[in-house]
Model the fold of this input.
Amino acid sequence: MIQVKELKKVYSGVTVVNIPALEIGKGESIGLVGNNGAGKTTLFRMILDLIRPESGQVTSNGEPVAGGENWKTYTAAYLDEGFLIDYLTPEEYFYFIGGLHQLSHAHVDDILNGYADFFNGEILKKGKYIRDLSKGNQTKVGIVSCLLQRPDLLMLDEPFANIDPTTQFRLKNIIKEQAAKGVTTIVSSHDLNHVTDVCDRILLMEKGKIIKDMATNSSTLGELEQYFAIGQTVTAPAATELNIDPEENH
Amino acid sequence: MITTFLKHEFKALGRSKNAGKTLAVRIIMSLLILLLMLYVVAAGFFMDMILKKVYPHQSIIIPFCGLVLIYFLGELFSRIQLQELPTLRVQPYLQLPIKRNTIVGYLTLTGLFSVFNLWPFLLFWPFIFKQILPSAGGLAAFSFIIALMGLSVFNNYLALYIKRKSNLNGWVFLVTTGVLVLLILGDFKWHFYSIRDISYLFFGNVLKTPILALIPLALGIFMFYFNFLYLKQNLYLEELQTKKDKYKSSTEFPILNSFGPVGDLVANEIKLILRNKRPRSAMTMSLLFLFYGLMFYLGPNKHGAGSDYLKVFSGMFMTGFFIISYGQFMFSWQASHFDGLMVSKVSFSDFLKGKYLLFTTASTVAFILTTPYAYFGWRVLLVHAMMYLWNLGVTTNIVLYFANRNAKRIDLSKGASFNWEGVGATQLILSFLLFIPPFIVYVPLKLLGLPDVALAVLGAIGLTGILTRGFCIKFLEADFHKRKFAILEGFRNK
Done:
């Protein structure tokens, strides 16, 4: 589905993404983890042709994404509120997105009915513009607008941030359903529990490089926790964390 | 603390993403203000001579005293239109251990930094020193100065208070402007009363009993304190923007449905215009400017030789104002969701077609609304029609070409705190550049004695532009893809 070759992005002398090769197969569900500044969002943006890479290229279904329009027909992504048209009501936005994919209003309504639980009565028919919704509710609008497009490739950047615990569980189920339907999903998150629960392949990024690429199994969560906990004690020599250190090393 | 606030504000000014532009604008504006000030200084300096010319038979101090209140009334009027509100983004400071009185005091005091407060000094002080000091003595001159300063401060804070109120409710602005206009008309047109006499009554007495100067001073101090209290009570309201919870209903434009995805894009853009303060003002402005033609055609030389130039200009202006004022900030209006647009299934050529459709609609509506100008002769209508074609064929393309070169983010959601009043003047200065091309075509032919050919050529160029739209779209699309990443980068910079 997605091939990444020799991809590199440099911001004022600092390499923020450097991926020699990455292959994401059809139907895989990928979890992207890494600390702030690891390059997750930058990688997302390059896959979506929103940032010009210094070198290398990304191909989607064999076609380079750069300059192409074809991948837009089967790709749906929500990275941040910048993807929402914030002066529209959620309904108007859904109809707009649906319309781009030749869905009639009735059809869109039908699909939205299926997400009534997910919306928890806070989105539709509230008489609010998207800009007046809370950040969590904006995320919900963004995620559902992605699903509305019936994508083959679904990309979500930190979808678990800002949403309440109940919705987080519902979202996990939604992502699992999509994966079961054969949709390729790429999800980044800081919540290691969620990401190991949902995804069957984890990419761990550090300073722009993918330093670990592993299939999820029972030991993945522990392995990830170990990586992140150690990283913390090296940079933050606080007394409490020094206590944890020996435990984690055993 | 106050110095820290000042430092922060200078940093905010220097580091804002639009620093370059605002700086350039500031320089142009301050040059204009300087020029204006020179006139004011000259007027102030020669005021005694001017008054002597106008009122040769009486002591010039009497008309001077009569003038003061009239001046301050006019000043209040222009302050309400032009004076800028001092804005410190108080939100980051509210929860810090800074006394609220300090924050509010700072906000209130900085309200005094306005060129308007310089004017009375420049205008009246020379006269006071040249005439009042020698004839009425030091104490009278001093009391005069105190009274003028009191009135300035009073005016300053009254204007700021009205502006703050009208930021929350637009009607306040209209009502106060209306009241002021009525006050002025009541004197000069209907003669119910005479502001001059009231002014003379007061200032004439100040000359005799200087202690009266304390009244305006007290008014000034009262207004300052009133503002201080108002700000203090509304520290939450002011910057944190309470919104009225009105039910926002979804709307649709059935006519646009027949245009497919292009129509959807236009529908969204119309909503953008209607639901956000700044683009909405661009639209209302272009409606108001439809009356602009009256100014020209009712003018003294409506059948004069030069009036064809005016027709070309006003035709261009009236049918193209929306294209120019709204198009000038194109694609910045959509900056906040441009990432989303680029990823969604919208081809850029559809996006451009949407812009053309929007411009064509707006321009056509403007053209239809200006047809009554045919009252001033069919030729007016003919010129308007040619300029309508020109706007559709040429101005749209120029505007869109420059849109590809614009990567400055506009945050529409920051409606109230964004100082959109300040944009008006810039917008006009920059948009006048777009008025030059039609005259480059028109003037030489007209001077050769071929005014009809000149009009025909203008129309033909416009028509060519319309007919070659397909080609233009391809060109603009290719051009956009070269600059796409720079634009996206700029739009992401908050």
